[in-house]
Amino acid sequence: MKPRLIDRLLLGLILLIFIAMMGFLIVCAVGVFPGENIAYFFTTIFGDGSKWYLWIRIGAAVVFGILAIIAIKLLFTSSKPKEKDGVNASLLMADENGVAYISAASIDSMAQKYIKSNSRIRECQSKVTIAPDSSVSMTLKAIVLADTNVPELCEKVRKELKEYIETYAGVSVSQITFLVVNTYSPATATRVS
Q: Kindly report the CA angle at 143 between 104 and 89, in degrees rounded to 5?
């Protein structure tokens, strides 16, 4: 998610203040400004401290409290990904009556249903990705039976699954990647006499 302009400005302000404070602490740690000189500086500006001391502490507490609230807001607003209506979805249609989406989970469920209908595929994991133009790409990782003609199966699954999803989900399938990760050979039962 791209941060809004106000979030970027607030983040820049927080970072500049933080950099200035760290630079000041480094200079103090090196010994350029000893503690006595800093105390003398504030005493010179604000007097002996009896009149302004309380107001300076209250002002500092308010400023640092506001900076802490801004930092917490930026921490939580900048890290959340923005999705369409809370789900990763593909646009089906938009007209004067409204808008319709289909979620990636629904498309994935449809793909799994199609894959389970193929007797040559033993297991399959699928991942659906929806592009900004609402087109769908899928990655399938399958375990197939050992005596399967893998190139024919890959071509058949990619072609038929594309048609199935486009027909029943109403979305454009841009790419299907079919990866055979292993083959499965059913164990033959042997009896020991």
A: 5
Report the run of H or E that residue 91 belongs to, with start and end: strand 89-95
**Angle at 132 (CA atoms; ends 128, 135), nearest 5 degrees:** 50
pTM over 0.70: no
Amino acid at 95: D
* Predicted confidence (pLDDT) per residue in 73-117, tens digit: 777 765 544 444 445 777 777 778 888 888 888 899 999 999 999
Amino acid at 9: L
For the chain, the domains span 5-77, 85-184
Bridge pairing between strands 136-145 and 173-184: parallel
User: For residue 157, how far is the Cα from the chain centroid?
Assistant: 30
* Predicted confidence (pLDDT) per residue in 17-30, tens digit: 888 887 777 777 77
First-to-last C-alpha distance (Å) of the chain: 68
Question: Residue 71 has which token pair?
Answer: 């930092």
85-184 carries CATH number 3.40.1080.10 = no
The continuous run of DSSP H or E covering 18 comes out as helix 5-30
